[in-house]
């Protein structure tokens, strides 16, 4: 399907403020970026780099006053989410070097604390894709998805304790459970068509049967319309923006995803 995505942030800046942004989706196997616009008001110098996870990031210093970031893109993405029931578990010694970092505990995904729990959840499933699908189902049934319930990221341990969270939080717990089974898992942030309420979204991917597959416990069924912006170990790696100095927060934020 063809989608038009847009995102707008408006800040009130008091002192020159360094930002690192992650707002440009990149083309890949699951999406193609046909057109893109990236505007700053007022215009300032921007320096782009690719981070350790392949994400396109932008560095700038926002001047005092009102500062607006406005992006839009026309993107072709999959009409459906690929599934692979029975997809094989890959022994660690046979995994590609590039995915090994997604086996390790990280700041918000304490996978070393979930070994017994993950095995209990997936007890009747064969190793691989079916284990991840069972984790996704367990999250959907057990952890309440409640938009606005957490303003700062919750770790996997905290989500499991609270039994409630936003999309980012459910992804953290899903990632931690997968990694505890030696299945590489990573967090993804981006857009989802027809998401309610409309906002930037987070989900997770697991590496089984030789490739990455999408899992999202916040949605009741598998559907297409995902647009990835950033990949990482957890929320610390995929912040849409980081700013440094006195804290600033958007005074206005708009996100839109529509059929092209």
Describe the structure.
This protein is an alpha+beta fold and 260 residues long. It is built from 4 helices and 14 strands. It has helices spanning 115-121, 129-142, 156-162, 167-180; strands at residues 2-13, 17-24, 31-41, 47-50, 56-62, 65-77, 144-145, 164-165, 185-192, 201-208, 211-215, 226-232, 241-243, 252-259. The strands form 4 sheets. Strands 3-6-1-14 form a 4-stranded antiparallel sheet, with no helix packed on it. It has a 4-stranded antiparallel sheet with strand order 4-5-2-13, with no helix packed on it. The N and C termini lie close together (8 Å). 37% of the residues are buried.
Question: What does this entry show, briefly?
Answer:
This protein is α+β, with helices and mostly antiparallel strands and 260 residues long. It has helices at residues 115-121, 129-142, 156-162, 167-180; strands at 2-13, 17-24, 31-41, 47-50, 56-62, 65-77, 144-145, 164-165, 185-192, 201-208, 211-215, 226-232, 241-243, 252-259.
């Amino acid at each position: 399907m063809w989608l038009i995505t847009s995102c707008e942030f408006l800040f009130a800046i008091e002192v020159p403020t360094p930002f690192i942004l992650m707002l440009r989706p990149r083309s890949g196997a699951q999406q193609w970026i046909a057109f893109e616009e990236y505007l700053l008001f007022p215009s300032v110098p921007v320096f782009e780099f690719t981070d350790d996870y392949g994400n396109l990031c932008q560095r700038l210093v926002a001047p005092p006053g009102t500062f607006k970031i406005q992006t839009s893109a026309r993107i072709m993405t999959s009409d459906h989410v690929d599934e692979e029931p029975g997809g094989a578990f890959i022994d660690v010694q046979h995994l590609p070097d590039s995915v090994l970092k997604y086996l390790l505990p990280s700041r918000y995904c304490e996978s070393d604390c979930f070994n017994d729990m993950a095995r209990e959840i997936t007890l009747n499933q064969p190793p691989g894709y079916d284990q991840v699908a069972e984790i996704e189902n367990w999250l959907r049934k057990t952890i309440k998805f409640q938009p606005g319930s957490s303003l700062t990221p919750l770790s996997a341990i905290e989500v499991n304790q609270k039994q409630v969270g936003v999309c980012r939080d459910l992804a953290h717990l899903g990632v931690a459970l997968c990694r505890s089974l030696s299945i590489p898992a990573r967090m993804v942030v981006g857009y989802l068509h027809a998401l309610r309420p409309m906002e930037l979204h987070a989900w997770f991917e697991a590496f089984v049967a030789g490739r990455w597959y999408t899992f999202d416990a916040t949605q009741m069924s598998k559907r297409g319309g995902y647009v990835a912006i950033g990949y990482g170990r957890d929320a610390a790696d995929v912040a849409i923006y980081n700013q440094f100095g006195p804290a600033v927060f958007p005074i206005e934020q708009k996100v839109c995803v529509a059929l092209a």
